[in-house]
Amino acid sequence: MASEQPAMKTASRCRAPQTAARGSFIIEGYSRHQRLGARECIQSAAFDVGGYSWCISYYPDDSDDMALYVTLLTEAAELFITRFASIDGERNPSWGTSKFMKWTELEESSYLRDDLLVIECDITVISKESEALPGASLVHVPPSDILEDFSKLERMTVGTDVTFTIDGEVFPAHKIVLAARSPVFMVQLYGPLAEGNNWESITVEDMQPTVFKSLLYFIYTDSLPDMEHLDDGDHREMAKHLLAAADWYAMDRLKLICEEMLCRIVDAKTAETMLALAEQYGCRDLKEACLQYINYYLKA
């Protein structure tokens, strides 16, 4: 009796390269644009995602509901699929909706501030490529977990060789990790001036313990800790202090993250102080956002 031969494994691979981007449409003077009439449309400037040109179309008509559409401007596009999400998270395979949100709900919500409405649209363009892989082994490789490992390292005291003291609170850390993430720490801990100095214990002035703790978390994990428990004021202050820390330690990515956070929460009451902050730390986008608010209210 012939022995059974093991089944040969074959596989094919379908690649789905994707490009994602966010389009923003700022409508200043919301009340002045209302009730323009049926079929009247306000469109954003065109923006590019995945090689295609798009715009956001907003209809402030006489109906009870706000209408929003995403428009593909590129001619002769073979295929595009958009998934449009309303405010409550309901998803429909559509390119827009005439009942995105009731005007009464919008005007009573926090989405409308100081007569200014910001509409943001996330678009992902997916292309499809397939190739055959005859005889390939179907091995599942899990995603990288290096950030989880570094998150554990941040919470551990094993191997730490430097401590930071701030207002009586002590934070242990690993010199080599700090130096790899910040050129300032590199010079301080391993540069010429480090020889002969005891950098095993460092006192940090002019920084709050909670801010330094968040800074360390970012150094180890490349992300910020959860701030959902903070109210708007505390969130704003944390972002401002982290921006200063990022500038001091020359951590450009963290600095940009803080600038983006502040751009989202700037308003008429904070625009002037935020503008001074933007000029102090060279934050071009934050400065532009503040000037838009200030110029709008000067015209009003």
Automatic annotation (TrEMBL):
<dbReference type="Pfam" id="PF22486">
    <property type="entry name" value="MATH_2"/>
</dbReference>
<dbReference type="InterPro" id="IPR011333">
    <property type="entry name" value="SKP1/BTB/POZ_sf"/>
</dbReference>
<feature type="domain" description="MATH">
    <location>
        <begin position="20"/>
        <end position="123"/>
    </location>
</feature>
<protein>
    <recommendedName>
        <fullName>BTB domain-containing protein</fullName>
    </recommendedName>
</protein>
<dbReference type="InterPro" id="IPR008974">
    <property type="entry name" value="TRAF-like"/>
</dbReference>
<dbReference type="InterPro" id="IPR056423">
    <property type="entry name" value="BACK_BPM_SPOP"/>
</dbReference>
<dbReference type="Pfam" id="PF24570">
    <property type="entry name" value="BACK_BPM_SPOP"/>
</dbReference>
<dbReference type="InterPro" id="IPR002083">
    <property type="entry name" value="MATH/TRAF_dom"/>
</dbReference>
<feature type="domain" description="BTB">
    <location>
        <begin position="160"/>
        <end position="228"/>
    </location>
</feature>
<dbReference type="InterPro" id="IPR045005">
    <property type="entry name" value="BPM1-6"/>
</dbReference>
<comment type="pathway">
    <text>Protein modification; protein ubiquitination.</text>
</comment>
<dbReference type="Pfam" id="PF00651">
    <property type="entry name" value="BTB"/>
</dbReference>
<comment type="similarity">
    <text>Belongs to the Tdpoz family.</text>
</comment>
<dbReference type="InterPro" id="IPR000210">
    <property type="entry name" value="BTB/POZ_dom"/>
</dbReference>
<dbReference type="GO" id="GO:0016567">
    <property type="term" value="P:protein ubiquitination"/>
</dbReference>
